[in-house]
Amino acid sequence: MAEWEINKPIGQCSGSGKTIQYGEEYFGALVQSPEGLKRCDFCQDYWQSAKPEVFCFWKTKLPNPDQKKRIFVDDNMLMAFFERLANETEQEKINFRFVLALILMRKRFFKYDETKNVDDKEIWRLRVVGDSTKEKVDVINPHLNEEQIEQLSNQLGEILQTDL
Question: At residue 98, does pLDDT exceed 70?
């Protein structure tokens, strides 16, 4: 399984090198690098002028190190990440999407419906809870073991700065 570069906010813009002050709003983002997805932070000025190419992003404030960690990723943001990964074929992103599906199932956003096998791949068919009009969602099961799922969940939590 691929390792991700997980950076905690260090108070510096990845694009300009400008210092981001405690309490200042900035953009956290997942960026595609030669090594895979990695987390980068961008100050507002750089974000607006350079419009960096990112896989997904969120806006937050740089926390004071003495301040309790704030959870800012809501279900809609997790769902947006999940949908963005729908057509990805790289194994790392398939694993990422599968773990997001597990998280969304645990949060009762999705419910397992059935399993089908297509081209030697196990596909889980999920449905959105409480919305019978939505199409069902297919997710490839990459057959991760418990340790891999836990490790990936922890990495996602670090990237998104939340407890998953």
Answer: yes
